[in-house]
Amino acid sequence: MMGLLFLDYLLSKQGILKIVQLVFLLVAFACVRSTWFNSFYAYGFYEGVTLGYSITIVLYLFLTVFGLPKRISFVNWLIAELVLDTLGFIFISTGSIVAALKSYADPILVAASVCGLLASYLLVGSMMLSFVAAHRPQPADPPV
């Protein structure tokens, strides 16, 4: 069973950042979902973005834990993670800013926008780690 799971990524800096991002995004989603919001378009977008990106993070973590990056070498997984984090930063920071502008009266919605902004800051850190790792010379794999 241990040969099937690759837990090295979860113990790395990028894996820990992904898990913390997931926690912040799920808290933000739960905060928005638990209130009656007055602006459906702003909070509907924010709710969709937080849930969608949370599912994407869970899928990415699932794939890396089962060792798909080691088995599929034609995909540059560092660049894929960089693109995933860049798109997540754009959508989550946009949704968090719009939610922050609309939520001045409800403290739970303010907490949701703060959690989204914290997750977007963590995304910037993850993007920098992915960028540095993508520019580091990779060891050549032995031929199969």
Word description of this protein:
By secondary structure, this protein is an all-alpha fold. It is built from six helices and no strands. Helix 2 (13-33) runs antiparallel to helix 3 (40-65) and helix 5 packs antiparallel against helix 6 (107-135). The longest helix has 29 residues, at 107-135. The chain is elongated. The two termini are 24 Å apart.
Rounded average pLDDT: 86
| SSE class | mainly alpha
Low-confidence parts lasting 5 or more residues at pLDDT below 50? Answer: none
Q: So how many helices?
A: 6
Question: How many strands?
Answer: 0
Strand content: under 5%
Largest β-sheet summary: none
The percent of residues in helical segments reads: over 70%
End-to-end span in angstroms?
24 Å
- Please state the overall shape, judged from the principal axes of the Cα atoms: elongated
What letter string, H or E per element, gives the SSE order? HHHHHH
| Alpha-carbon Rg, integer | 17 Å
Compact overview of the structure:
The chain is mostly helical. It has six helices and no strands.
Summary keywords:
144 residues, mainly alpha
Write the layout of secondary structure elements.
Layout: H1 8-11, H2 13-33, H3 40-65, H4 68-71, H5 77-102, H6 107-135
